[in-house]
Design a protein that fits this description.
- The chain has 306 residues and is an alpha/beta fold.
- Strands 3-2-1-4-6-5 form a 6-stranded mixed beta sheet, with helices on both faces.
- About 4% of the residues have low confidence.
Amino acid sequence: MAIQWFPGHMHLTRKAIAERVKELDVVIEMLDARLPGSSANPMLAELTQGKPALKILNKQDVADPLCTEQWLAHYNGQSGTAALALDASQTAPAQRLIQACHALAPNRGGMAKPMRVLICGVPNVGKSTLINTLVGKKATKTGDEAGITKTEQRLCLAPDFYLYDTPGVLWPRIIVAQSGYNLAASGAIGRNAYDEQEVALELLAYLRLHYPASLEVRYKLDGVAAMRDEQLLEEIGRKRGGLRGQGRIDTQKAAEIVIHEFRSATLGRITLETPPEFAQWLAQGQALDSLRKAKKKNKGTPAPEL
């Protein structure tokens, strides 16, 4: 089942970005380093109309470092784009951001031409936490829940550097099925929009192939790679006390454990996609979306006269 989540305040954020972009010099997009492709907003590229872009791979301390290097190379190889990785342990990232923005827009700076930067990202990507670190005080609300920030605000990182913060925003239609699952696993999508057992099974399917040792160590299991996803979820429930009467396994509790322990990095440093994997998923999603649109168009076309 495809996962979709686009609550009302996101419509307002889309309109605010479209209006603000006219006066911007650089757009900072915060990505989740564990799912850089899935957390990149395709709507943003359209709204920002080719403005210089700085991609921040946040939470790199809980992502697979080898995959992070691949994603940094991927984004740094794009025209008009720079990328850097950050994490919550870095106490003074402001200078790095300012320098990166000036490199992308070298003609801006000074009181006569102050740098104007928009920072945006999917919900729960850590943007509010970063901003509080940048300004050295609690400027925005934070929490382990998608969609806490609801309004735009302007912050001053330097006398000639203005940062516009926007609420976390997704896009109206997620066409890459795996992206929906990865965003849900990361906490970027509201809990009422997905089934936790379904998301946990998709998460385990990827971890079983790419990080079997992490699962075996955490849950004290053997032969994880050879298990079916449903079997693996049941074994995790059995190991972690998810037992009901008559030996039945509480797979809902097991799913909640798996998702929580991925988000908290208890399973280790994990990334759920590489650039080639995401490119393949995107191509498949675009093909299916084109087919869906064609069917919808043909459905509304009057039948030819005989």
